[in-house]
Amino acid sequence: MAEKRDYYEVLGLDRSATDKDLKKSFRSLARKYHPDRSTEEDAEDRFKEIQEAYAVLSDEQKRAQYDRFGHKGVGASFGGGGFQGFNMNFDDIFSTLETSQLFKG
């Protein structure tokens, strides 16, 4: 599998780019590489790459995760930006264990 390019590189920006810079670059590149408009052979792949980069960098939390951990910080193995999908707390876990057969003598 090919390594992903740096999202800032994809959008032609540096890490200090503002939200306005992100949006401007995204719109320009999306127009240029949109598969319905572009005649470049790799337009569809580039367009998807641009969309992915913008989706991460335009979201404050995802951008912070990406800046800190790179692609692993926003990938599926990282929970898409943290432990947001984990809804059980420790009280629930202990309550479940107490009522399970492990604690019944």
Tell me what you see in this structure:
- The chain has helices spanning 7-11, 19-33, 43-57, 60-69, 90-99.
- It is mainly alpha-helical and 105 residues long.
- It has one domain (7-103): Orthogonal Bundle (Helix Hairpins), CATH 1.10.287.
Superfamily at the CATH H level?
A: DnaJ domain
Can you count the helices? Answer: 5
Task: Catalogue the unreliable spans.
Answer: 77-89
Succession of helices and strands: HHHHH
What's the number of structural domains? 1
Oligomeric organization of the protein chains: single chain
Number-wise, the strands total 0
Please tell me the CATH architecture by its name: Orthogonal Bundle
Helix-and-strand structural type: mainly alpha
Average pLDDT number: 80
Radius of gyration: 20 Å
Q: CATH class, please?
A: Mainly Alpha
Shape: globular
Cα separation of the termini: 52 Å
Helix content: 40-55%
How many strands, what sense, and barrel or not for the largest sheet? none
Looking at the structure, the CATH topology is: Helix Hairpins
Sum up the structure in keywords:
mainly alpha, single chain, 52% helix, Helix Hairpins, globular, 105 residues
List the helices and strands and how they pair.
Layout lengths: L6 H5 L7 H15 L9 H15 L2 H10 L20 H10 L6
Overview in brief:
The protein is mainly α and 105 residues long. The chain has helices spanning 7-11, 19-33, 43-57, 60-69, 90-99.
